Amino acid sequence: MSKQSIEEVELGPAFTPGPWEVKRAETEAEWDVMTKDGFYVAQTFEMLGENDCDETLSNARLIAAAPALYAACDAIIQWDKAEKTSLPYDDDNGAAFRERVRLCDEAMTKARAALALASQPEKEIK
Questions:
Q1: Is the pTM of this model over 0.85?
Q2: Which of 23, 52, 116, 125 places its Cα 20 to 30 Å from the Cα of 9?
């Protein structure tokens, strides 16, 4: 098998489609990560004797944010590709520049949304 650079690899999600949500499991020290349809994706557990439910919940939130984080990374890659392959500003009356600005805005919006999802307050957890 030959080595490929990250630019040569065709990225495509092979994971369970999002969005995913966090729900309290059967015990206070466990959290389920599930699809909106109720299929299990993951479960986080408190480390034996650690008694740190906040960390366990934070881990579940981060896992649940994975589809949004993937989308944000993909948007950043699209923006980067446009930056590297677009025409200079004068060649197209600024159309390529405006498209790169749009891609940048989209990438940053997705990144902010994914980070917000990963750190959502517990009161929103069911």
A1: no
A2: 116
